Amino acid sequence: MTTPSVAGHAPALRACWHPVAASHDLEADAPLAVDLLGEALVLWRDRAGTAHAFLDLCIHRGTALSLGTVEGDEIVCPYHGWRYRSDGSCTRIPQLADATRVPAKARATSFNCSERYGFIWVALEEPRWALPEVPELEDDTWATVLCGPYTWACDASRQVENFTDFGHFPFVHPGLLGDPERPVVPSHTVETDDHVLRYDIVRPEAPANDDFPVFGNEVVVAPERRSRYELHLPYTIVLRLGWGGRAGMVYFFACRPEGPDRTTGFLAIGRNYNLEQPDSVLQEFEDVIFGQDRLVVESQRPERVPFDLADELHLTFDAVAVAYRRAMRATGLAP
Ligand code: FES
Ligand SMILES: [Fe+2]
Fold first, then answer.
1. What's the per-residue H, E or C state across 236-259?
2. Residue 329, ligand 1, Cβ within 6 A
3. What is the model's pTM?
4. Is the CB of 122 under 6 A from ligand 1?
């Protein structure tokens, strides 16, 4: 089912997995409303704890199912108590003399839903690609911290490009992610393999920061960060960091594209060092970083990345954005 509000989006985005919520935000007996690609969805869990995603709309009178309740393996509409089970079929219409004589048309619209890496994922149509493999986030010897989520007034494409943009670190995050004395972006090349972009870079790290001791660099004077990126189209990034020793960190960032001017970024960070550090240290650090980014990204016009390379001005150090824009078009994910 497609609502008019989704018309501005490439239909191909519907056939991709998108994160819609952190797993811990969907409680056992409370439905949760979320927006995805202009569609209002309701998430809920059955008795086994399996998450389900429906259009947030009861076929009877268009009421939001998210205002209802979850009872056993069914979600119950708040208006007239119709009950739907996980495949979307209606099991009971209490107003009928025989409540089980349900017409075939009485159904909720259900979508592909899965749960991994601490997030719930939805694809509005059969997904074209599997989720990225990030074994570190499922490895008990690593610690994982969930940060955010970060809701910004922009399209998901702007939030993703910001995450991959090297040139801004010394300017937007001086002393935290970049060293203003070393603004030159090292050369790097991007390999595009269908819907995955891969690139590596060794770039200047900010000197160790006493307020946020989050990174694993041993050199503190002019440290260098080795970053290996995988950008999985359309909006998921796996970033592996190293500093030449055994300390490793993985950033897993994925956006929920809500509409043309609203997106929410979900972030899971894994590390194999400082395992005892409280989650709040990384969470507060990322809240600062994402707050700094938000100001500039929400000011960008248009709100959505212009995918035609003739728009905006690309220099050699913008190789990732160029490759991203090309690949989004080549895969039909952007106009
Ligand atoms: S509107 Fe949902 S049961 Fe009537
Ligand atoms: Fe940034």
1. EEEEEEECCCCCEEEEEEEEEEEE
2. no
3. 0.95
4. no
